[in-house]
Structures are given as C-alpha cells and as structure tokens.
Design a protein that fits this description.
Layout (H helix, E strand, L loop, with lengths): L6 H6 L10 H4 L1 H14 L2 E5 L8 E7 L2 E7 L5 E5 L14 E3 L3 E2 L6 E2 L5 E3 L18 E5 L2 E5 L8 H12 L7 E11 L3 H8 L30 H23 L7 E3 L6 E6 L30 E6 L3 E5 L3 E11 L2 E11 L10 H26 L15 H19 L1 H9 L1
Antiparallel strand pairs: 1-10, 2-3, 2-5, 3-4, 6-7, 7-8, 9-10, 11-17, 12-13, 13-14, 14-15, 15-16, 16-17
Helix pairs in contact: 3-8, 5-7, 5-8, 8-9
Length: 426
C-alpha cells in the first residue's frame, strides 16, 4: 500500500456500490489488519461437530499465526484452546486430527486435562503454581452442529441471535448425527475477500459453472428485468410463484424456508431454502439425491437446498441427503485456503448408500472453477490499470452487502463507531 494513502482514508472514501480499491486486495499492511480485526475479533466457522465425534477427538485449526485445538471432552462438550504449551510455547498437538486422553506437550511432557488445567510439570520446584499455567481458552460455539470459534478476549454476543434464528432451519438436517465423507483443502491464489465476493454472486455462473448450474434455476441467482423478452419475464414470474409455493409446502411440513437476512450484524448471516431444477433433490449432475440414506428424520427427498452464509468466512448448503460446508482461511494477501466438507448420515455406507465421486463431483469442479476466477481477479487487482468497478444492482447486491459489512467492521475498529456509521451511510 502506498505510504501516501492511509487505510483510514481508503475506508472513508470508499464508494458504495463499487468494488474496493486495490490495496484492500494487495496490501500486506491491510492483510495484517484483516487478520487482527476481522479474523481476530469475529466468530469464524471452522468445522462441524462430526469433525470431533467422540470423547478425546481433537482437531487443529490454523488461522494466520494462531493455532487452535478444538476437542470433544469426556462429557461430550466442545472445548477450544490455543495450541501453545504454557512452558516454552511449543505446539502441543501436531496432527490436524487425532484422539487423546489428556493433552501432552511432546517437548517436556507438560500434561493438561481436557479442561485445560495443567496436571503435570516435572522439575519445576515446590513453589511452582500450576494454576497460573493452564491452557489459554478460545471461545467456541456450536450452531446446529456447525462449529464457530472467536479469538478475541470478548466474543461478540450476537451469535446467540444468529443461533436462535438459524437453528430451526438447520436442525432438521441433524448435522450432529452425520459423518464427514470427504474434506478437500484448495489453495486459491487471491485475496480472501475476492473469494467471498465471488461466492456472494452468481452473475458469473452461466458460462463458468456448467456442473453447478444443472440443478439451479437461472432466476434463483440473479435476474435483470431490463432488456428481456416477455417469455423470460413469464419464466421469472413462474419461478417466483414456485418459490412461494415451495416455501408454503416445506414450512407446513416443518422445514423453515423463507429468507432471513442480517448480513449487517457483527455476526452477519443469511439463509433461505430454494427449489432446485430437474428432480429437485440435490446439487448433483442428475439433480437426484447423492445418498440413499436421508438425514435425521427427513422422509421427503425434494427439499431443495437450504443456503446458510456467515460473515466473514463461510457458506453452507443443506439438502435432504447431504450437507456441504465451506470455510475460508487467509494465508497471505494473495492466498487463501478454502476447506470443503461433504457430510452424509453417519450410518450411510460408501459404495452402498452413496458413491463418493457422485457426491462430490459438482462442488469439486465448481471450487476449482471459482479458484481460477479468484486468481484472474487478483491478477487484475495488482495491475496499475485497476480501479473499482460498479456492482450489478440485480445480480451483485449481496457482494455489496459483504463489502459494506467488511468496511463497516474495519471502520468501527479503526475510526470509531460513529465514523463507521457515517462511512456505511455514504
């Protein structure tokens, strides 16, 4: 970032309805602030309860320079700690996933209980107070089986509001009684915000996502009424009628479906269940269920797809037979990791109830296609010719809402709450 332009100036002069200025995507200084303010002070989606299904199961999550232990204790409660021994700072858990009794640092065998208390530290003398050397806790919360953590000393309390609104939508899919069929990590060569912006629109879908668009209605991912012919307007009207009809039927059957959008909250989120084309069952090439064993107590395959987005780093899709979750972790100004999980019923048997390739092929292809788009976007942002461009009011309003959320959160921490309100209003 040029030393002549401060981030405060960039935030203040941000033009609503337009993409961000280049330094927000390219600057090492702004990236460090992103990690401190966005990823250091907000609730982050990092996994699912089936990542740690049994007592003693452990998962390690890396967020920038911070490593976090997520574990299931003997009482089946979720706990999270900084993955740093309180002796001389060595990492305690070295594998991404493992199972333990206690947490033991391999360096000098300092041993911690599942509650984080230091139980054993040899050769420290009679005056050593173990109580002062317990593991440092990290805030952790499950929302319907989705695991969120917050690295701040005080976590935003509006996650309770999100949970109250969202859990009625996702609990019927019984994520806690699923299993992870596959996890794929994909390194995208672009700024994390470009990944999130790309996800928040489907303007690009036609022509870039031949697999994903098979089960999607065109009118469900952005429709511009200007310049269209009467036939397309008629199709759009029929789609809106279909959505209303499906919502009424699904909700009568106990599946909340109507849009809930609170993307401007500190813990911003959005959800809605929408119909799928074809057989209407799943994000698969033939639009039919990928697993024969439906989730929870669901008996109706044609439930469309429930989308659930959270600020700043996730999106998720819930169907009658499987769930796909996505979380983004920045690695640098020009790199980020996209972690995708596919979940099926815990009793579903691979090769019997589901074919793994068929389950994953649509989103594996789509993720790579999106990664390619993020890369060309980032390569454009580093060009001297780059300047912020206008968002489509028809197909990119949710990109604007993500960008506006990001600018508001950065502004509040750097400029103060009143200034942030002024920036958001401009």
């Amino acid at each position: 970032m040029s030393s002549e332009i401060s981030i405060e100036t960039l935030l203040t002069r941000r033009k609503k309805g337009y993409s961000l200025e280049a330094p927000f995507y390219t600057s090492e200084e702004i990236f460090k602030l992103d990690m401190e303010i966005i990823f250091g002070r907000h609730w982050l989606h990092v996994g699912v309860e089936p990542d740690v299904p049994e007592p003693g199961d452990v998962m390690v999550v890396d967020i920038g320079k911070t490593s976090v232990i997520v574990m299931r204790d003997d009482d089946m409660e979720l706990r999270a700690y900084h993955n740093v021994c309180r002796h001389r700072g060595a990492r305690i858990i070295l594998k991404e996933k493992t199972s333990v009794g206690n947490l033991v640092c391999s360096y000098h065998q300092w041993t911690y209980g599942q509650d984080g208390e230091l139980l054993f530290a040899e050769h420290m003398g009679n005056d050593f107070d173990r109580k002062c050397r317990n593991l440092k806790k990290v805030h952790i919360r499950s929302v319907g089986g989705l695991i969120f953590i917050c690295l701040a000393e005080e976590a935003p309390d509006d996650i309770d509001r999100m949970a109250a609104a969202i859990e009625p939508y996702i609990l019927p899919h019984d994520l806690k009684n699923c299993k992870v069929a596959k996890t794929v990590d994909l390194i995208e060569k672009g700024n994390w915000k470009l990944t999130m912006e790309n996800n928040r629109e489907c303007y690009h879908c036609v022509g870039n996502h031949p697999e994903l668009t098979i089960p999607l209605f065109e009118y469900g991912f952005g429709f511009a009424p200007d310049g269209t012919n009467p036939k397309r307007m008629e199709h759009a009207a029929k789609y809106e009628a279909l959505v209303q009809s499906c919502h009424l039927g699904w909700e009568a059957a106990g599946f909340p479906s109507r849009e809930v959008e609170r993307l401007t909250d500190v813990t911003g989120f959005r959800t809605e269940r929408l119909p799928l084309d074809g057989a209407g069952e799943a994000h698969t090439k033939d639009t039919r269920s990928a697993s024969q064993k439906l989730l929870g107590s669901i008996t109706e395959r044609k439930l469309g797809a429930l989308s659930f987005w959270t600020q700043p780093n996730s999106w998720n899709h819930f169907m009658s037979d499987h769930i796909v979750t996505f979380s983004v972790f920045p690695l640098g100004p020009d790199r980020n990791l996209l972690r995708t999980r596919w979940l099926v019923h815990k009793d579903a048997v691979e090769g019997v109830d589901y074919d793994l390739n068929r389950l994953t092929e649509v989103w594996e292809a789509t993720n790579q296609q999106d990664a390619d788009l993020v890369e060309i976007s980032h390569n454009g942002a580093i060009s001297p010719a780059y300047e912020p461009g206008p968002y489509s009011p028809y197909t990119e309003p949710l990109v604007e809402k993500f960008t506006d959320w990001y600018v508001s959160r950065m502004s509040e921490h750097l400029l103060g709450k009143q200034a942030a309100v002024g920036v958001a209003a401009e």
